[in-house]
Amino acid sequence: MRKTSIVIAAFAAFALAFATLWQGAPPIAEAQQQESKVEITQVVSGDGRLQVDWTYSGDASKVKTWTVLWVPADGDFKGVIFSQHSIDKAARSFIIDRMTENVPLDNGVEYEVFVAERTKDGHGDTATGTGTPRAWAQPVITEVAAGKSRLEVSWTYDGPEIGLNNWAIVWLPTDLIGETSGDIGLTGNGSSRSFVIESFRRHGALRNGEEYTVYLYPIFGGEAIEGTESATATGVPMSPLPDVSPEITGADPYDGLAEINWTFDADYGDSFAALTGWKVCHRAEGKNDVACDHTDDPGARYHMINGLQNGKTYFVYAIPVFEEGREGNVSDDYQVALPKLTLPGAPHNMRVERKGSKYLLHWSPPEDDGGTAIFAYLWRGGSQRQLAEVSNANHHLDITRYLDNDGGVDRSRFYTFRVRAQNSQGRGPVATYTLRPQYFPPVIDSEVGRSEHGGDVVTVRWNAIEGAIKYRYNLRNVTSGGGWSGWQDVSDLAQSDAPFECFWRGGNPGDPASRPDCETIGAGKVGMHLSNLTPGSTYRIMVRAKTDEGVGPQSAKLKFVAGGRALQPQNLWAKNYSMEIVSDKGQTYNKYYVHIDWTKEYTGGAHDEGEYWQVRHNLSGEAGSWSRWITLAWIADGEGPLSGARLIRQTHPWNGDGDLFVGTHLSFPDDSGFIPGVSKFQVRRGHVNMPALSAISEVELKHEQRRTR
After folding, report:
1. CA dihedral 86, 91, 92, 95 (to 10 degrees)
2. Structure pTM?
3. Domains with residue ranges and CATH for the chain
4. Residue 557, pLDDT above cutoff 50
């Protein structure tokens, strides 16, 4: 409002000229004292021009036109106030580009601008603002950012923006300057301050690693007036490097070497630089000298570092190498301590294995290799008096020819073999093994059999040892936590034809032909029966032989579970019969039964609470026609009705010999399905302390007997 008095005086001097404009409206000073609904939002500078923008918060329907007035802010306007009126009522912007008809605005001079509304009654609000026209300025390129086959140009511009509606960006390869013109790209927007370049007309996509020169200039107005050019800048397209670091996961130091392993998340997309190789570096602790190895394999995730000193500590790190030889993020240091090398320990677990006519001496590598590779084993023994070398890869030696005595093994003497390991530091201590050629440890079968003696009796078998006088065994109940029983003689040695695994197929009680089918121990083997074992308990057993030269070494330990399977029912017998039943109401009807029984072998007939039986039937004899299994429960003698789900205990009802049997009655609605010699019944036994049911015993229906009661 500092020029309000000047404006009022000007209006007095030119009252006649503006009489029609204001038509009795109050002076501007008076209008300014009221709250104006007109607000100038900005006065934008241009080259010899200003653009004034405003808003109006009143009732727009009452506005007829707008009037804009402007004067130099310093008051030196030589008695002239220039105005523009009759501006469309919808307008909210106006460009001021002259002082008088033939006098432009001066760049660098501040002008005060007034915007007034005109309503139908002649009254209106006014707003004021100031602005200074400025000459064009030079844009400044601030960055040429590199990407994969692209450059992004960014710039600033501190010049006038009136009429600025576009930017032109020019680029070409630096080495073609003077030979050809550059490509030109337009932003299409005067407010843009960045532009992406992705191709050049001569060779298509921008070439990574090639330098390009760039400059730009503004474009004003519809006549495409070009403003001042920027200075040139350069950029080199280059794929960005991923912000991913490798991680060393481990190192395996060994006698002047260290194998370094690392991980690297390479799933970072195609927009980044391609991985082309690796650089693996190391330095000794307390030293600043760094040595690096290079590999051109981008898929490498391990590297062997050579030339390290044993007993020293090193720090290693890995660096990914990308296209154009650029290096990515460095991994963290990883500490590697090389061992101080010593002589290897002695081989251990020496043993002899006989394979047919051959004798093989085996051993295991030393538990301590001295920190470096064992490259050989040295040995001597038998007829070999001088040290001989064996490859470190075998850990065994065929010693047969060193036992020869006139074409055969000399059984009258002992043989001693000595083996020692050798590494880069020298030879380790000697391991010794003494061999009696006639004897080798027994090899126990990997399974145990169930004999006809019952499910709590198992049979153990092993290969027969040549020249064995007797065998001894050592047993331990692992489940109970007890110790070894101590070596005991096998008193009743089972020969090759003795039963090993037996399966009962049923039969008539008292029939000598009713025997189980058994697998024998087998040729070239012997065994023993173990009884009085605790069902369900885990045992370990080992065996050794005694020859006329003494007791030999023990076998490997065999683990087995006693009573792993329940005892198989024996001596099955089956009859069917009918009974005439008279109901409480006097009705008479027949009921059909099958009676099945089998031997109860427990002493005195005592009932074992842990045992149970299951039974099922197949009356037609056809495959797939078996009924479901029925579990049988105990009832006392003569107690309760007969039932297919009850187990009875009695002396045999037909042979009358007083043997104790158990069995059941199965009831059926009629007897049409019974076919003697075809109908079959199966029984199996279980025990709560045994992990598996017994094998199945089966019996056919022999004949039919009908009786009533």
Report:
1. -70
2. 0.38
3. 4-131 (2.60.40.10), 140-235 (2.60.40.10), 247-337 (2.60.40.10), 348-435 (2.60.40.10), 449-561 (2.60.40.10), 573-700 (no CATH)
4. yes
